[in-house]
């Protein structure tokens, strides 16, 4: 499963990209509205950093205008994917954008039935939301599993993108049920780092190493020799 970062913050992308784990990014109007400066500049910089699919969402509710906005955001950077909300207008716009050769991430998908329609319309990515389903008492992982099965049985080649992840368990379960991608908020990515045994283990290694200063001298010499 590939990992994208879900954010509108260039600073967050710059930090997490240093870990070497990001294959792409997703943005949305709400995330971009939290930032400062030009939204197009932020999308371009994020795409440059991740060097992979970077979703930028259309905001119109009219299918024709959605297509125009989609073509426009594609001009921001070669890695931009047009993000289109699910619905009759979104399906119509997705079909037209794909006809014109533009990849689409269909967002706000909450059921396998919707995912099938998105795939048939030509979506490259289908964003299946988790957290918002949990909020209304629906098993989001069971739904995601249904979406994965339905889409992968379909021969369109669409990829399932797990979205609205609220915690590390969501990312784990998304991987286990076969999602192709998870787009993960900065906060959750940071949470995925942490385990008390990792912390205590590193502290013990450092403590033991420090008991013999000659070991650090040896390591420094090894590094210096490798640079010659």
UniProtKB/TrEMBL annotation:
<dbReference type="GO" id="GO:0016832">
    <property type="term" value="F:aldehyde-lyase activity"/>
</dbReference>
<protein>
    <submittedName>
        <fullName>Unannotated protein</fullName>
    </submittedName>
</protein>
<dbReference type="Pfam" id="PF00923">
    <property type="entry name" value="TAL_FSA"/>
</dbReference>
<dbReference type="GO" id="GO:0005975">
    <property type="term" value="P:carbohydrate metabolic process"/>
</dbReference>
<dbReference type="InterPro" id="IPR018225">
    <property type="entry name" value="Transaldolase_AS"/>
</dbReference>
<dbReference type="InterPro" id="IPR033919">
    <property type="entry name" value="TSA/FSA_arc/bac"/>
</dbReference>
<dbReference type="InterPro" id="IPR001585">
    <property type="entry name" value="TAL/FSA"/>
</dbReference>
<dbReference type="InterPro" id="IPR013785">
    <property type="entry name" value="Aldolase_TIM"/>
</dbReference>
<dbReference type="GO" id="GO:0005737">
    <property type="term" value="C:cytoplasm"/>
</dbReference>
<keyword id="KW-0963">Cytoplasm</keyword>
<keyword id="KW-0704">Schiff base</keyword>
């Amino acid at each position: 499963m590939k990992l994208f970062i879900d954010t509108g913050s260039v600073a967050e992308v710059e930090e997490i990209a240093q870990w070497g784990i990001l294959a792409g990014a997703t943005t949305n109007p709400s995330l971009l509205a939290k930032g400062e400066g030009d939204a197009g500049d932020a999308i371009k910089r994020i795409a440059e950093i991740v060097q992979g699919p970077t979703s930028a969402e259309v905001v119109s509710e009219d299918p024709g205008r959605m297509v125009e906005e989609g073509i426009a955001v594609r001009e921001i950077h070669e890695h931009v994917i047009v993000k289109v909300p699910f619905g009759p207008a979104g399906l119509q716009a997705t079909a037209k954008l794909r006809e014109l050769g533009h990849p689409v991430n269909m967002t706000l998908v909450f059921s396998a039935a919707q995912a099938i329609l998105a795939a048939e319309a030509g979506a490259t990515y289908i964003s299946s939301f988790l957290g918002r389903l949990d909020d209304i008492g629906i098993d989001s992982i069971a739904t995601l599993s249904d979406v994965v099965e339905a889409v992968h049985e379909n021969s369109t080649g669409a990829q399932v993108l797990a979205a609205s992840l609220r915690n590390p368990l969501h990312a784990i379960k998304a991987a286990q049920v076969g999602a192709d991608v998870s787009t993960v908020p900065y906060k959750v990515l940071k949470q995925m780092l942490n385990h008390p045994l990792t912390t205590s283990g590193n502290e013990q290694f450092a403590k033991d190493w420090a008991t013999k200063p000659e070991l650090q001298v040896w390591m420094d010499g090894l590094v210096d020799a490798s640079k010659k």
